[in-house]
Write the structure tokens for this entry.
Amino acid sequence: MSKFTVYPAIDIRDGRVVRLAQGDYQRETRYEGDPLTAIQAYAAQGAEWLHLVDLDAARAGGYTLAPLLQAITASTGLKVQTGGGVRSRDDVARILQAGAQRVVIGSLAVRDSKRVLQWLAEFGPEHITVALDARQDASGVWRLPVHGWTETAAEILDQKLRQFADAGLSHLLSTDIQRDGMLTGPNLDLYGHIQAHAPTLRVQASGGVEKLADIAAARAEGCAGIVLGRALLEGRFSLAEALAC
């Protein structure tokens, strides 16, 4: 089995560390402390990667976390995958130049796949993570909310999985929005579904992790990594425990 990666997550809004429940900006929890201090603590506990999200940019566009990203890479040596509000090729280039290892592209990968496929070819599969966050409808179809999870695209998850896998995408992040921030466990059915439709993708599970057993379950389901947000911020287990899981 290939290496499984644990990604501690820091979501930033108005300069603060926050978490949203089910992607709802009206259901925000704020956490005390400076974001960089929290990130440095993760590095001290053995993290190799960080998942960093600009929630302001996710709705309004215009990635704002370049100064923080530069401080993270300078002070911790962490590899960072980061996104929020990525709209143009120049956005991708600037984020990589600021020190990111991978740029996360979400809504645009759904709304304008052709453009994102061009960036995938230009920057390479090790520098792009596509985020296909999903919500299952009443008929069992996985739909794709976009624009900060406030709208729903016409295309469905299965179509996008095939499109990006065929183009050579390596890293896919997928969140069941109904589980995000809810501490109800990751949706293993979603990850099994992705593996069945696009087995070449290295899938990062995200959303709902409550306990260490959830990490082991995601790995057993075939995921290549897992993003940990609220559970770490609230001390349900330590990053060191997660890394040892």
Notes: The chain has one domain: 5-244. The mean pLDDT is 93.
